[in-house]
Write a structure and sequence with these properties.
Length: 360
């Protein structure tokens, strides 16, 4: 029923739809529903500790035996730069004063954990069918240890060069992430967002360059986008923003409200929330500090000083300092369960693929 079954065979899934692993937005319930509906549910672990990941996986495995994906960041933790972090706090000081917050009080560190030995042990314990990485691949022997569990290894590329790099290092499939995608851009061999490529241009070039299956990501939120991805040479899609309005999403109320009210041209890439470029809906912090700011400390240190501002503003019902991650197609998101959305996406795409190019 699908024109390219390589991803289905590789992952043992019914529909070539991967629910994107959006850290802070995905609940175990969403993973369960997507996998039970025939897609690949993905648990993001970057904002979890290994023990929290174990707890979530325990819940997931009690409810589904179908394939799942665990996702990890694999960035290099930055060295603390007190001078730069002090400059960043000084840049935010007027906002602290406005909200009545002590700018010199210590803030708890915001977790963005890279994949390490402790997380690898979680993979070895639960043996997920797939493990995906963002920002390249882990160092040392960790990818080999993951593969030894039987898991298929996936990672994201923002360029043909990155896709070839990942294939050479044993990735079983490449997620070709276009400029349109919400959340963090996966780029790791280059950090120049001005030269990034859109999904429609990136996917066919990656598909021509590598032998492994290609998964299209970025700006895909309905059956039309899925059908287009297959026409461009993809074997499947990774969809994130379309799932943000599902009741199983764990986004904050101000984020949900922004998704429902913002105009389609109101997303931009910004580094002010974490220190790395990520696409979200424009808000006060992005307009007044960025969207791209040289003052922001390296990923993920920028998030720490913003956290109390976000908390205080959200308590007043404002999204001024909240990362409102969303891809450019966020207006196509629908309020329905993750299970129903996965089924609808698959049926809509199959109908369009069966009609042929002239009727899509």
């Amino acid at each position: 029923m699908w024109p390219d079954a390589r991803l289905l065979d590789l992952l043992g899934i019914e529909h070539p739809i991967i629910q994107a692993p959006m850290a802070g937005a995905v609940s175990p319930e969403m993973v369960i529903q997507v996998s039970e509906a025939g897609g690949l549910g993905s648990l993001p672990c970057a904002m979890l500790t290994p023990d929290q990941a174990r707890n979530d996986l325990g819940v997931i495995r009690q409810r589904t035996s179908r394939p799942i994906n665990l996702n990890f960041f694999c960035h290099t933790s930055p060295r603390s730069d007190p001078a730069r972090e002090a400059r960043w706090r000084d840049r935010l000081r007027p906002y602290y004063a406005e909200l009545g917050i002590d700018a010199d009080a210590p803030n708890p560190t915001v977790i963005r954990n890279p994949f390490d030995v402790a997380f690898c042990r979680v993979v070895e314990e639960f043996k997920p069918e797939a493990v995906s990485f963002h920002f390249g691949l882990p160092t040392s022997d960790l990818p080999q240890r993951v593969k030894a569990t039987g898991a298929r290894v996936l990672s994201s590329a923002n360029s043909v060069r990155e896709a070839l790099w990942l294939e050479e290092r044993g990735c079983d499939a490449i997620i070709a992430q276009g400029f349109e995608a919400g959340g963090h851009q996966a780029m790791f061999l280059s950090h120049d967002v001005d030269t990034q490529v859109g999904t429609m241009a990136l996917v066919p070039q990656v598909a021509d360059a590598v032998k492994v299956p290609v998964i299209a990501a970025g700006g895909i939120a309905d059956g039309r986008g899925i059908a287009a991805a297959f026409a461009l040479g993809a074997s499947g899609v990774q969809i994130g923003t379309a799932y943000l309005l599902c009741p199983e999403a764990t986004i904050r109320p101000v984020h949900r409200e922004a998704l429902l009210s913002a105009r389609e041209n109101e997303t931009a890439l910004t580094n002010v929330f974490t220190g790395r470029p990520a696409r979200g809906i424009m808000n006060r912090a992005m307009r007044e500090i960025g969207p791209i700011s040289d003052a922001a400390p390296d990923f993920p240190l920028a998030a720490t000083a913003l956290a109390p501002l976000r908390t205080k503003a959200e308590a007043a019902g404002r999204n001024d300092f909240t990362a409102l991650w969303a891809g450019q197609a966020f207006r196509l998101a629908k309020e329905m369960s993750a299970s129903d959305l996965t089924t609808m996406l698959a049926r809509d795409a199959q109908t369009r693929l069966e009609r042929g190019p002239a009727q899509r």
